Amino acid sequence: MRRKPIIAGNWKMHKTRDEALQFIYAVSNKVPSKNLVDSVICAPFTVLRCLVKRQGDNLRIGAQNMHYLDSGAYTGEISAPMLKAIDVSYVIIGHSERRAMFNETDESVNKKLHKALEYELVPILCIGETLEEREKGVTEEVLKRQLELDLKGLPAEQVKEIVIAYEPIWAIGTGRTATNEVANAACAFIRGEIARLYDEETAQAVRIQYGGSVKVSNIDELMSMPEIDGCLIGGASLKADAFIQMVQSAVNNKAAN
Ligand code: 13P
After folding, report:
1. Which of 39, 119, 156, 170 satisfies CB 3.0 to 4.6 Å to 198 for a cystine?
2. Cα separation of 58 and 39, whole Å?
3. Alpha helices by DSSP H, 119-172
4. What is the arithmetic mean of pLDDT over 19-29?
5. For helices 139-150 and 180-197, angle between their N-to-C axes, nearest 10 degrees
6. In angstroms, rounded to a whole number, what is the distance separating the alpha carbons of residues 105 and 100?
7. For the chain, which domains are there?
8. What is this structure's pTM?
């Protein structure tokens, strides 16, 4: 099955409104057609609206987090209907930085996935092991546990819509990228688990990204791997030129396969 590649930038806590505007003006006419690739920028809440208003046809905007309830007394939180109301299309759920620093658990990740899908936001679910877990040889166990808990109660039809980002924590922001083989093997394992939990059709439909120190100089190798359908890119996505080059790399490599 041919899966459309998906390149997403995760800006994390970067860019003021002026900086975000500069970026969107620089990329808006240069993003390849959405028929070839899904291009997404996941930006801080404060710039979502201004980016959505200026996104070209080929670029979609995503948030980096959301609450799992519609509304309530949750100071400082943002809900799925709030994102939907301003035409945000994607939302990152369960990023390892939120799991490690903001008490995100598999239980809250699961609730957030249900809520995002209810509002037709495309979730980018992040999973991945720590360095200690990799060195202990328990990577597969960790991925298996995260998938089972995070996807609990979701029907196959909804799982097909989810993008899963395999982000080994030891590769995030460290300059230490997983080798193509390691990244591809983990993505293959994730697809196998989806087949086990659901069925082969669902596993073949779901798109799996790799994330962790992806940049212009290594994205070609990663995107040439059969199980890697895209990348979730932090630091290197902050520069407009680099972002465009990386989206183009996804198009070229998947067209060549
Ligand atoms: P870096 O690309 O900066 O390593 O970040 C990866 C990441 O966490 C994307 O969500």
Report:
1. 156
2. 7
3. 131-136, 139-150, 156-159
4. 95
5. 40
6. 9
7. 6-256 (3.20.20.70)
8. 0.97
